[in-house]
Amino acid sequence: MSENKNLEIADKAPKKVVENTIEVKVEERIGKIFQLQTEQSLVLRSSTVAERKLVLQKFLSVIEKYTSEIVEAGQKDFNKPETETLIAEVFPVVHEIKHALKHLSSWAKPKKVSSTKATFGTKSKVVYEPKGVSLIISPWNYPVNLTFGPLVSALAAGCTAIIKPSEFTPHMSKVISKIVDEAFDEKLVAVFEGEVDVSLALLECPFDHIFFTGSPQVGKSIMVAAAKHLSSVTLELGGKSPVVVDETTDLEKTAGKIAWGKFANNGQTCIAPDYVIVHESKVDELVTTLKQTISNAYGASPKTNDDYGRIVNRAHTNRIKDLIDDGIKNEGLVVVGGEIDVKDRYISPTVVVGKYGDKKFLNSKLMTEEIFGPVLPIISYREIGEVINQINSMPKPLALYMYSENKSLTDYVLQRTSSGGACINTNMVQFLHGNLPFGGVNNSGIGNAHGEFGFKAFSHERAVLEDKFTSNHMLYPPYTKRVKSFVKFVNKYLA
Ligand code: NAD
Predict the structure, then answer these.
(1) In Å, how far from its chain's centre is CA 85?
(2) Ligand 1 pocket residue status of 221, Cβ below 6 Å
């Protein structure tokens, strides 16, 4: 890394980390904070629920204090509408904290387990111990939500945390740093702003847990880096989340839900509907209702509508433009939108329809790469088996959305597919449910976040067994005839 780069990164870093000089190399600062947090993590092993709750309460009050700055930063970074920031950045974090405050005592309580036949005479429990020093690497699409959500779980579990927010949303990163500086001592939580090289430098450290949110591609390199130290990982990744719409669906209700899921935050949502697979008899009606819904939501000119945001940067705008172009090149028909202004990072809400069974369209980039933008491809099916084949021909998605009034058909689809989560007759709402695990499966992720599942991600489930009056001394050598017949008895009756 060049000296200039170091200075640049140091300049972006929280000042208290660098002890009155910005010339300290980022690697040195990382080493120093990591050492401080390692020491603190030993102290936190015996922290009480009451102490952790105090930390969370302070965190809550600082977030509330900075809410308007969060909204402002979202507007500066990518025209994020205030309402979307409040509902999708601030609300989930506040909810996560309040949920933890309410339930932490029960989550953290050792869970007694009954003894088995073979361990008769013992008393056992599962104890939740903090994993230790954690690293949280977060993406740019919901910077506050996806940085502070996992942080709540880390603090609830009694871990320390080093945070690396995304470099693509610098105003949000600044507010994140400010909140952390005010709410925590750096030996508990510290932020390292900067580009990928900062992530790579952090990944050199032997973290006890790494919680990464981002793309499957980068997720793989995170796992490789974690393997070096056998750090445990939670990987919250992405993918192409399908929406299935059958012929029993009420499209008046459904179109609004799909459009909200797809076009909120300009489609830059990990669990946004990626594409729709609709019964062939419903294609025209779905297009008409979507057109109407989009017009009702964003008016005739979404570009000048404050409720419609922007793509995060030009590179991503060009990436999405390329997906649309490739869809069109492969027989896709743009039926809504298609207006693009790369300089303004603007793509209007766009719907592209592929003809039934058209392999060219199915193999286009629009139908094979995660879109992560305001473009909705629609394909159609005649037999439900085609839906199952389509979904199973691709890596397991983060979410699957099924719109149908036919319960047995819904069960049929869910039983024959796999996804991180699933919703029936809605989309995206699963994220807001504090009692549901949130996570992917294989290509869309490993492990879970939210509520008790997030607490467990940052906890080691330690098995603690106490001997009361066991008879295992009867198995000790020398292996006499008596021992051997006892072993036979154990194998036959106590297994
Ligand atoms: P990304 O993977 O490019 O970057 C995420 C973070 O990793 C950033 O902080 C970045 O600086 C860092 N990073 C990038 N390259 C790295 C490398 N080689 N080594 C170490 N760190 C590196 O993802 P993104 O573009 O910020 O976000 C979009 C992706 O994230 C989409 O795939 C989306 O589906 C996914 N996502 C998933 C969830 C979820 O909860 N499952 C939530 C939001 C986004």
Answers:
(1) 17
(2) yes
Alpha helices, DSSP H, located in 425-467: 451-457
- For the cut 50, the answer to whether the pLDDT of residue 361 exceeds it is yes
Instruction: Report whether residue 224 contacts ligand 1, using a CB cutoff of 6 Å.
Output: no
What is the Cα–Cα distance from 403 to 385, expressed in whole angstroms?
16
Q: State the amino acid at position 270 in one-letter form.
A: C
> Which tens digit of pLDDT belongs to each residue from 76-127?
999 999 999 999 999 999 999 999 999 999 999 999 999 999 899 999 999 9
Composition of the chain by helix, strand, coil, percent to 5 = 50, 15, 30
Q: Which CATH number is associated with domain 242-435?
A: 3.40.309.10
- Range of weakest confidence among 23-37, 335-349, 423-437: 23-37
State how far the Cα of 451 lies from the Cα of 448, in Å rounded to an integer: 10
Q: Tell me the CATH number for domain 5-238+448-460.
A: 3.40.605.10
Helix (H) or strand (E) holding 9: helix 3-12
**Closest Cα to residue 395, out of 259, 248, 242?**
242
Count of other CB atoms within 10 angstroms of residue 364: 24
Same-fold call for 5-238+448-460 versus 242-435: no
pTM, rounded to two decimals:
0.94
Please give the average per-residue pLDDT across 272-297, as a whole number.
98
Ligand 1: centre distance to CA 215 (Å): 4
Active-site annotation holder among 186, 193, 236, 370: 236
Residue spans per domain, the chain: 5-238+448-460, 242-435
Q: What is the mean pLDDT of residues 164-174?
A: 97
**159 labelled catalytic:** no
Cβ neighbours of 204 (radius 10 Å): 14
CA of 431 to the centre of ligand 1 (A): 18
Helix (H, G, I), strand (E, B) or coil at 216: helix
383 is an active site residue: no
